[in-house]
């Protein structure tokens, strides 16, 4: 999870509360360097609206249980989801999440999207460290604007 600077000092519970009534939009790859930058090189694949409250009690495996107005939405474009951006009901960016197979934060029922095909979130976890979970050796070894260079083990 890459948190926008406005929410950087917020607790995880505060972030979950801020998402009530907000949206979670899935984009093709080319995630911005941080959540404060606009999305400009990615196609908008699908968008979910969070219910109020946005999250239920975590499941037994530790993943979150997001509450959406609709359990599935129709994809608007063709593409492979690479990240999702969560915004508040009034349009403030909260965070970007990694999406896809493997150890990503959000898993969908399908690997790719096609126009009109249903999109469904099957798993949602928070990775407060912010990196791409499957490539910490690469992603976390490069400085990001406004952040110090992480130590690579």
From TrEMBL:
Compositionally biased residues, Basic and acidic residues: 132-143
Residue numbers spanned by region Disordered: 132-153
Protein name per the record: Uncharacterized protein
Annotated organism of origin: Xanthobacter flavus
Lineage: Bacteria, Pseudomonadati, Pseudomonadota, Alphaproteobacteria, Hyphomicrobiales
């Amino acid at each position: 999870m890459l948190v926008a600077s406005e929410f950087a000092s917020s607790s995880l519970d505060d972030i979950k509360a801020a998402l009530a009534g907000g949206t979670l939009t899935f984009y093709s790859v080319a995630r911005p360097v941080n959540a404060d930058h606009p999305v400009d090189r990615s196609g908008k694949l699908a968008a979910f609206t969070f219910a109020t409250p946005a999250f239920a009690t975590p499941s037994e495996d530790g993943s979150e249980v997001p509450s959406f107005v609709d359990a599935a939405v129709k994809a608007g474009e063709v593409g492979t989801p690479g990240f999702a951006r969560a915004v508040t009901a009034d349009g403030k960016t909260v965070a970007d999440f990694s999406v896809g197979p493997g150890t990503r934060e959000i898993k969908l029922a399908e690997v790719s999207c096609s126009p009109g095909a249903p999109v469904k979130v099957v798993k949602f976890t928070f990775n407060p460290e912010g990196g791409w979970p499957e490539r910490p050796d690469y992603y976390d070894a490069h400085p990001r604007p406004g952040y110090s260079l992480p130590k690579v083990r």
